[in-house]
Amino acid sequence: MKTTIRQIGSHVEETVIIGAWLANKRSSGKIAFLQLRDGTGFIQGVVVKAEIGEEKFQKAKELTQESSLYVTGMVRADDRAPSGYELSVTDFEVIHEAADYPITPKEHGTEFLMDHRHLWLRSRRQHAVMIIRNEIIRATYEFFNREGFVKVDPPILTGSSAEGTTNLFHTKYFDEDAYLSQSGQLYMEAAAMALNKVFSFGPTFRAEKSKTRRHLIEFWMIEPEMAFMDHEESLEVQEQYVSWIVQSVLKECPQELKALERDTAVLEKIQAPFPRISYDDAVTFLQKEGFEIEWGEDFGAPHETAIAESYDKPVFITNYPKDIKAFYMKPHPDREDVVLCADLIAPEGYGEIIGGSQRIDDEELLKQRYEEHNLSEEAYQWYLDLRKYGSVPHSGFGLGLERTVAWISGIEHVRETIPFPRLLNRLYP
Predict the structure, then answer these.
(1) Same domain, yes or no, for 238 and 371?
(2) Quick one: 126 and 77 in the same domain?
(3) What is the pLDDT of residues 98-112, one digit of tens each?
(4) Is the pLDDT at 160 greater than 80, yes or no?
(5) How far apart are CA 271 and CA 268, in angstroms?
(6) How far, in Å, CA of 177 to CA of 174, rounded?
(7) Which residues are bridge partners to 33 per DSSP?
(8) Cα–Cα distance measured from residue 68 to residue 65, given in angstroms and rounded to the nearest whole number
(9) 109 class by beta-carbon count within 10 Å (0-12 exposed, 13-18 middle, 19+ buried)
């Protein structure tokens, strides 16, 4: 019976066939141990000379790393094995014999591994991260479908910036200027006016010349927008969503978390509701902690980390100054100098994973913001139309997938959380 390593627990004491690659091997006298992977998981295959014969046993000992083969064997339960099972090999057929595989079991430098990213993905650690990433994506769809959201796909090529910044990748769209999208948010607001609650999941691009462990040039975002919803209601959706994906990973990816040596006790605490601190109070806290920061300045990584260390859950920092936030954020009803927004800061130094706000729903105020930010009313007329024809209170947020994967996985750098990272000086492979 042909099966996969992930499904092998359903075939204990049965003979199965798996297509696999040889990740590693070792031999001890008359026994050879094959570390096998098939893309769904890892398992040890035990080859006993007395059971398989001299010729086949010698061939097993000569197998090279990443050679591909069909392996036949009896599935055995084994509490000592990471997966809980091992395979007693009775036969194998070599499909392709690999030679001089560049990523050996020894230590390699980051640049070398990044140059061989197409092969590095095969390693146990990278496999675990990709499986967790997939589970977060699966749980995302499950959550928003359950909550009555409609999936909408905003364009990647746009004629203007979503946030009025200059960190855009420029291209020509026939005889017009165009840019790679840095956010689908504005289009999602239009979709919310048609479909009530919507979310997008797609690539975004930021031409920021940053080399920090939190930044990628190309990354993926989940961006929900909700009509008839105020800022406080949006915060509740955010904390429920983050709690959902964390608990889903804990439930569905225990082997992967174990392979990454992730402290799951930390993740088990991630349950809504999340604590909240205002920007005002955060500045006061940071000043008491010895940081040189004044009201009106944005927070950097050290500031966010210091604030997050006071909590064992993600923490919302609310009501930032208007002047350091995007043009579309709604002013606080009691204060003109701050807006109805929040950043969600992950624990353990992973920084902001969500940025969100209530959006301006007043046509005249949005026109005023266009002037303040030197935005072309002609280019943004369609966005103004949303306030002109049946405007309603509405809110939304964006979650950065790679930062979230890094946090849940316990991975230090976001470059390991996306299959083929695009970094400041890396476009290969």
Answers:
(1) yes
(2) no
(3) 999 999 988 999 999
(4) no
(5) 8
(6) 8
(7) 26, 46
(8) 9
(9) exposed
